[in-house]
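Input sequence (290 aa), recorded before submission:
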Amino acid sequence: MCMGYTLHIGNRAYSSWSLRGWLLFERFGLQVTTRNVEFKSGPVGQQLAAYAPAATVPTLITPEGTVVWDSLAIAEELATRHPRAGHWPVDPARRATARALTAEMHSGFSTLRTVCPMNLRVAHKGTAMTDALRADLDRLEVIFAHAQRVVGEPAQWLCGEYSVADAFYAPVAARIAGYGLPVGPVTTAYVASHLAEPAFRRWRAMGLVRGETLNRYAQNLPTTDWPGPEPLRAEAVDTGTPENATCPYSGDPVTHLARIDGRVFGFCNAFCRDKTVADPLAWPKFAALL
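Predicted structure, token format:
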């Protein structure tokens, strides 16, 4: 029997559905152990054979060992098990709207997904606009404006407070930003909210430093700087005297060093160091050291 939740995820740089599943825990304060499924290691279904009928990521294993292999099912199950976590808005109109938005994302926007696969390691410019892609972007404008009317007041997120709907549209924001897609002011502001959101930034930081590069996601387009907040100056170093004796994440002794904003800090392993170097201020436990 499991002692807690286990979430099987794909490569963080590319797996948009894995990002959604992870945000359902991270953004709502729920503990989970993640297990990585490497796409180059064979079919996902084979790698998850012990958890049949799961064949995709994310796949959740509940504390009692139940397999939940669909992201929308994961969202609803977590909301049922943790009613105070805030997965859905309390207000009935906002909750109904959030569910409608989430369901449409779960089943729609096929052109946007196909033409602009999520790739958090690079930003592009010069994406060709087709009628089908324009239709998907126009549809986003319609439903985002509708959500704003339902809320009835200025809000950072679709239905007021951050909800399942926002977790599901986070990869959409990454696509719009990463491909420089033309959208209106409401959607532009919404995308900016995701790019600055610390949980999203932590996911992207990990995606930058862990996992194989998958050439099938490469695009024949010019590249440009990632449009999110610019991280602090940071680099891995081999020598120096760290300000901290233990890793800010694990509490273990320091073995790896980084120079961040002109100061030297220590970490317990290369991954802790590298994810912090990628975006230092995305990590509250490290930011406290600053």
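Checked by second reader. Residues 234-287 form one domain.
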